[in-house]
Specification:
Structural class of chain A: alpha+beta
Distance between the termini of chain A: 37 Å
Mean pLDDT of chain A: 96
Helix content of chain B: 25-40%
Largest sheet of chain A: 5 strands, mixed
Largest interface: A-B, 23 and 38 residues
Radius of gyration of chain A: 12 Å
Strand order of the largest sheet of chain A: 2-1-5-3-4
Distance between the termini of chain B: 20 Å
Number of strands of chain B: 9
Shape of chain A: globular
Low-confidence stretches of chain A: none
Structural class of chain B: alpha+beta
Shape of chain B: elongated
Oligomer: heterodimer
Largest sheet of chain B: 5 strands, antiparallel
Number of strands of chain A: 5
């Protein structure tokens, strides 16, 4: 399955890229996070993150589909 | 209207957009870049947004504010990019038939934006280093900018009208329940 992942803030800095397309067997955002955590060692507790799929907030156990765009969202700090 | 902008915010132009003959009250909030945060001297901020989701979530907040408080027109613009001290990071405005609705809608929008809209800020310090505010890794590690939050934040709304003019938004770390942010 081809997935596109975008990174923001310190996740972006840590991954060294704003976006990547990858092949993954992950079925849910939670599985994908585990995979990326293993690759990059973000060192973040996913319970503090949110996730968006195709520019909408999504559940960690949502079903991913080929071509989906996933964004892991660190705690926000706007304003 | 909710917008993410890489250009300076023109508050006067935004105010004009909210003018309405049926409205007797208008309230605006401006968040400014402050020169300190939790005991450290700050030289500037860098804001980054997940544009698509920031705009859709921001528009939801605007719609909620109008519906809940009966404000006629509500708008918010959030800056991204590098901002120097004193620059406006966020502008919220609400016009309504009466002042209560305008105050309530304005307050609601800034509070919810700080909690829900995917925008992040990085602080640059006098010493030359920098940090992402509210960084989850640092919370894990117990670093100061999360740990220090509880005893550092004002709880009284009165602090928001302190000299300098309502600039409390630019550097706070939003946390529910919403008594501290602003």
């Amino acid at each position: 399955m081809n997935l596109t992942v975008s990174y923001f803030a310190w996740l972006r800095e840590h991954a060294g890229a704003s976006e990547e397309t990858l092949q993954s067997a992950a079925v849910t955002p939670a599985e994908l996070w585990q995979e990326l955590e293993g690759r990059y060692g973000f060192g973040a507790d996913s319970s503090r993150l949110r996730v968006a799929v195709n520019d909408e907030f999504a559940a960690w156990d949502a079903t991913l589909r080929d071509g989906d765009h996933i964004v892991f969202i660190p705690p926000v700090s706007g304003g | 209207m909710f917008r993410i902008s890489s250009e300076s915010i023109d508050a006067a132009a935004l105010r004009d957009e909210l003018a309405d003959d049926s409205c007797g009250g208008f309230v605006a909030f401006e968040g400014w870049v402050r020169n300190h945060h939790e005991g450290r001297r700050v030289t500037g901020l860098e804001y980054e947004a997940y544009d698509a989701l920031a705009v859709s979530e921001g528009k939801k907040i605007i719609a909620e504010a109008r519906e809940r408080f009966g404000a006629s027109r509500v708008a918010c613009v959030h800056r991204v990019g590098s901002l120097g001290l004193g620059e406006m990071a966020v502008w919220v405005g609400a016009s309504a038939p009466h002042r209560d609705e305008a105050f309530a809608a304005c307050r609601y929008v800034i509070d919810e934006v700080k909690l829900r809209v995917p925008v992040w800020k990085k602080e640059h310090y006098v010493e030359g280093d920098s940090d992402w505010v509210n960084c989850a890794r640092c919370a894990e590690a117990g670093h100061r900018h999360i740990a220090a939050e509880a005893d550092d934040r004002p709880t009284s709304p009165a602090t928001e009208t302190a000299p300098g003019g309502g600039s409390a938004a630019a550097q706070e770390t939003p946390v529910r329940p919403g008594v501290r942010h602003g």
